[in-house]
Amino acid sequence: MLKRNKTPIALVLSVAAFLGIGWLLVRPDLPDLPAYVSVSADRDGTKALYTLLEEKNVPVKRWQKPWRFLPKASGQTLVLLQPYSLTEREREEIVGWVERGNELLVFDSSPEGWTTFPAAALDEPDPGVVPVTDLRRPAETGFTGRVASAYRLDASSGMEPVLRDARGVIGGHLAVGEGSLSLFVVPEWTMNEHVLEHSHFELLWPYLNRPSGALWVDEYHHGLQDKPGLLAVYPDWLLAVLLQLLLAVLLWLWRKAVRFGPAFTPRAWTVRRGDETLLAAAGWYERGRLTREALAHQERYVRSRLRARFGVRTDASDAQVLAAAKRHWDKAAVDRLAALLACWRAAEEAVSYTPKQLEMDSRKADEVIRNLEKE
After folding, report:
1. How far is CA 223 from CA 21, 40, 62, in A?
2. Whole-angstrom distance, CA of residue 301 vs CA of residue 314
3. Which DSSP helix (H) or strand (E) runs through 351?
4. Which residues of 235-250 are buried (b: 16+ CB within 10 A; e: fewer)?
């Protein structure tokens, strides 16, 4: 019973192994993404804002490379949402990019690193909902928002205040070269759980609305970076399937003992154990004029090949050998075998057997051997 079911059992075990490997390589767990990531649907992600911009036909895209690779064209906007670990060199690079006619929107609850926007810390933050004034739309009232930052911008620094609450400026705008830089201390307004609360999106929309020119959302400083290499364009599940297929092919080749490429015989074996041995043996037979012994060795070898090929006994008669050959060979090959058998019989009956006759009979034997080895 076990022997009959050996193949199905092996197939079931192979499928189970493939599924196990695939589960280990690609687990169906949700990724633990950091906050403010535009691909995250968690409460602290910003996928809702990204989707809203797409629905309003804003040409929004994600940026996942270093800032030195930003497009050189002008009229573009980069949105920076609570970035992690910005270096001074990166700040200089982005300011140079802005000076060429682009815009940078920074949402950072702790803006100390942005020296162009001096900020002051409050004694105690007030995370409650407060009235917010849009200084660019003073006629419109009733805006509210939740401001959790403990910082307010210094309005006397030469910047243009754009958003204000009762405790100070929470958003400012500054011209830099041919471009502009805007900073807001309310990054929590862009989160999925807050973007549609109160007046958050209405207050941000005038600054995010870009009917022309690309709007890049920076993800490089959230840890989402473009992976180098060819495999980066394929999903993980596809790579797992391809890996399993590769392992299956290798196991199949190993089981079938398939070998690619030629088999090289070491030169040392060919020279020392091949030509030299044959020449030495041939010289010994030639010096001793042992032609009949050499012929006997040759006959035993040919008959062993006939037994391996046709299944005839080594002591079978000539008629039996020819009858077996006729079932597998054409007439010309059978005639060559019959001529060789006749030569052997003639050599047995002859009084003497010269080396020249041995050479002629050996050529006939070589033709028969080639036919046997070819098949």
Report:
1. 28, 13, 13
2. 9
3. none
4. eeeeebeeebeeeeee
pTM: 0.55
3-state secondary structure of 102: coil
SS3 label, residue 104: strand
Read out DSSP for 112-163? GG-TTS-EEE-SS---SEEE-EETT-TT----EEE---SEEE-GGGS-EEEE
36 in Cβ contact with 194 (< 8 Å): no
Strand intervals (E) in 192-344: 215-218
The pair of structure tokens assigned to 347 is: 């050599």
Cα–Cα distance for residue pair 56/40, rounded to 1 Å:
20
Whether 137 contacts 204, CB under 8 Å: no
Whole-angstrom Cα distance, residue 203 to residue 185?
Answer: 13
One pLDDT digit (tens) per residue for the chain, 375 residues: 545 556 667 777 777 777 777 666 655 555 667 888 888 888 888 999 999 999 998 889 998 888 888 888 888 999 999 888 888 888 889 999 999 999 999 999 888 888 888 888 887 777 778 899 999 888 888 899 999 888 899 877 788 899 999 888 999 999 988 999 999 999 999 999 999 999 999 999 998 988 778 899 998 888 777 665 556 566 777 888 888 888 888 888 877 776 666 666 666 655 555 556 666 666 666 666 677 888 888 888 888 888 888 888 888 888 888 888 888 888 888 888 888 888 888 888 888 888 888 888 888 888 888 888 875
Residue 171: strand, helix, or coil: strand
Rounded CA-CA distance 282/294 in Å is 9
> Which residue, chain included where needed, has tokens 């039996």?
320
Amino acid at 163: L
Q: Contacts by 227-235 with C-beta closer than 8 Å and gap 24+? A: none
Q: Rounded CA gap, 8 and 372, in Å?
A: 39
**50, amino acid identity:** Y
Residues 325/343, Cβ–Cβ less than 8 Å? no
- CB 294 within 8 Å of CB 353: no
Q: Which residues of 190-202 are buried (b: 16+ CB within 10 A; e: fewer)?
A: bbbebbeebbbbb
